[in-house]
Design brief:
By secondary structure, this protein is of the alpha/beta class. It is built from 22 helices and 28 strands.
């Protein structure tokens, strides 16, 4: 069946219901029990949602906001909106009122579909500041019985109302027939690292062609199992859980909650798995914490076989020659260590695993591949419908993001910025013609904002950093902060790092400790603490972080091009960088400019030689209230190395 026969996501749904209607399309764990929807049942539900939306007078091209955690009914609602001729606009469920207000107002949503009472309350809170919201639909009825239901509808009741209205069925059929590859499939908002989020308009052609090409690349099929746990507003979740799922017909599994995600992951055993680097870093941190708590024999066995895995695992995964004795040792390690560890992580059945969003530390990347997990890197953007490059099997390296996905063209500008052109290139930024023209030229080439180069001998793309973040030190040497930050984040004790140094004579850093890992260490050593701030300032913690910084400096010094990025001075921040405080995006990317402005006094102290600095920082609490925390931070020097000069002398 060719792509033109399947010109929209609803058309793919009808194909799946006809071709393998009794196979599972969705699963969700609720009250400890997995519930399933077949493709035939999913089609019936989607048609009911579409009819219900028509009963609310949804017009062609109208935007419908969708807010909530990953649930089958919300995925089906997105497809139902499309089937009725509308455009789904998923929002981040943890968005604060200001962010939600901007997106709802900008997209002009008249109808909002909310997952539960929490999301309904958030929309009601901002409703007075948003023009246009007229109707709200909710999925979970708990806590909403006594609300005014004049403009509030349960999804179940709305579906029943739509199905009962016989005059709406011809309208639905007409709306569905009007959909084609050029119709808008979804509008997704960017994370807004440098300003207000932009609404990225993606067509059915963008989503379906990209889903087909990327699926062919990794030989994805109907038998895959995926776990849908990433924000529904993120383009990656949309392409994995709707685009590729509907193209291939595989099952999307939704966890019961964020708290049960790891347990649910183990129960599902996905064959196709995506996680941003932070998830892999967190999983590794938990592994290391557990090993610290294990008995001496178990600890020694773990470290012995992990040394074997690092030497042998990646070679076996890439089909390279390995000695018979090493194969035997690795098989023994699989029985004693790797197998149980992969089962604990929920990754035993992963055939294809990906990470993206930002560069993953090479040590973390190699750790998972050494276990025999086919973890690869991809490079993508919302504007590309995710995929720009992918790593081919047997050509996987931690220092590149692979070769172009089928259908994608790459070029590097004179200033080193990466450009691409592909079937996935977005249509426009909604209500922002200037930004559209500034990002995508008349020939369809899109500026990524990332600096990189293509290896002449392999064709692999290497990303150095965000183009706007790459600079030069005062002595002219290259400044690429992400390179150093990722090395530091390999250590389980370190959660986040922000490196400074552009135009300066040395690099300095802010560091966030990982409260889980460091808290576990404190408990094992009978060190009492009352808060993150108190633990972050503990002398032993600072000494441990200093040792990590100095170890990374040794590694950085060995890279001739980036040796100038060694950390000379650092401090451990008194608070975690937080999206609610504007310091990170909802996808956990650091907003460097905001951090620089907000903590300008701390940066100044790092460069003026101060040994300590007192500061007051505004914070946002979970209920939205603002407050302030005071702290006096210790600033530390780290040992650096002049490797280049020593090598020259030798």
């Amino acid at each position: 069946m060719t792509v033109p026969d399947m010109g929209s996501i609803p058309a793919l749904l009808r194909r799946n219901a006809q071709s393998f209607g009794d196979q599972p399309a969705y699963r969700e764990k609720e009250f400890g029990i997995w519930q399933a929807w077949t493709w035939a049942e999913a089609l019936d539900e989607v048609e009911g949602i579409a009819l219900g939306l028509l009963s609310l007078d949804l017009q062609p091209g109208e935007h419908v906001a969708i807010i909530g955690r990953n649930r089958p009914e919300l995925y089906m609602s997105m497809v139902g909106v499309q089937m009725a001729g509308g455009v789904p606009v998923p929002l981040y469920q943890d968005a604060v009122a200001e962010e939600m207000t901007y997106v709802l107002d900008h997209c002009g949503a008249r109808i909002v579909i909310a997952g539960d009472q929490e999301q309904v309350d958030k929309v009601l809170e901002v409703r007075e500041r948003v023009t246009g919201i007229e109707q709200m639909i909710y999925l979970d009825t708990r806590g909403l019985r006594k609300y005014d239901h004049t403009h509030l509808h349960s999804l179940k009741d709305l579906i029943a109302k739509g199905k009962a209205a016989a005059d709406l069925k011809p309208v639905l059929q007409s709306r569905g027939a009007a959909l084609d590859m050029q119709s808008t499939c979804v509008m997704l908002y960017t994370s807004g690292t440098t300003g207000k989020p932009k609404g990225v308009v993606l067509s059915n052609h963008n989503i379906i062609e990209t889903s087909r090409n990327s699926s062919d690349f990794d030989h994805l099929g109907q038998g895959e199992e995926v776990l849908a746990y990433l924000p529904m507003a993120w383009v990656g979740d949309f392409i994995f859980s709707i685009g590729q799922a509907y193209w291939n017909g595989f099952c999307v599994n939704c966890p019961e909650s964020a708290d049960t995600m790891m347990t649910d992951l183990r129960e599902i055993g996905p064959t196709y798995y995506f996680a941003p680097p932070r998830i892999f870093e967190t999983q590794l941190t938990h592994v290391m914490i557990r090993m610290e708590d294990a008995g001496g024999l178990k600890r020694r066995m773990f470290h012995y076989f992990m040394d074997v895995a690092k030497r042998v695992g990646p070679a076996l995964l890439d089909g390279k020659a390995v000695s018979g004795s090493d194969k035997l040792l690795y098989r023994l390690g699989e029985i004693l260590v790797y197998g149980p560890l992969k089962n604990t992580l929920g990754l035993s059945k992963v055939r294809v695993g990906y990470t993206a969003g930002e560069a993953i530390g090479p040590e973390i990347f190699d750790f998972y591949r050494s276990l025999g997990i086919n973890l690869k890197q991809l490079y993508g953007q919302t504007e590309a419908s995710v995929f720009i490059t992918q790593q081919k099997d047997h050509e996987v390296r931690p220092d590149t993001v692979g070769t172009p996905t089928p259908g994608v063209e790459l070029k590097i500008a004179e200033n080193g910025e990466v450009f691409y052109r592909s079937p996935g290139v977005f249509q426009e930024y909604f209500k922002n013609a200037d930004s559209t023209a500034g990002t995508k030229d008349a020939d369809g080439w899109v500026a990524t904002g990332d600096a990189g180069f293509i290896e002449a001998d392999t064709g692999h793309l290497r990303i150095i950093d965000r183009a706007k973040d790459v600079g030069k030190m005062a002595d002219g040497s290259l400044f690429a902060p992400k390179y150093v930050e990722n090395k530091l984040k390999f250590f389980p004790n370190i959660l986040e790092v922000v490196v400074f140094g552009n135009g300066r004579d040395m690099c300095t850093a802010f560091i966030n400790i990982d409260l889980t890992a460091v808290g576990n260490w404190a408990e094992r050593n009978n060190i009492a603490y009352g808060s993150y701030q108190e633990l972050a300032g503990h002398p032993q913690v600072l000494s441990t972080i200093q040792a990590h910084v100095e170890e990374v400096n040794v590694s950085v010094a060995e890279d001739e091009m980036l040796s100038g990025c060694q950390i000379h001075r650092f401090l451990v921040l008194h608070k975690e960088l937080d999206p609610d405080d504007g310091e990170m995006t909802r996808t956990r990317k650091v907003r460097r400019r905001i951090v620089e402005e907000k903590f300008a006094d701390l940066i100044a102290a790092l460069y003026d030689g101060s040994s300590s600095v007192s500061t007051v920082t505004e914070v946002t609490y979970e209920d939205g209230r603002k407050g302030a925390i005071k702290a006096t931070l210790e600033l530390r020097d780290a040992k650096t190395h002049q490797v280049a000069q020593r090598m020259a002398a030798e």
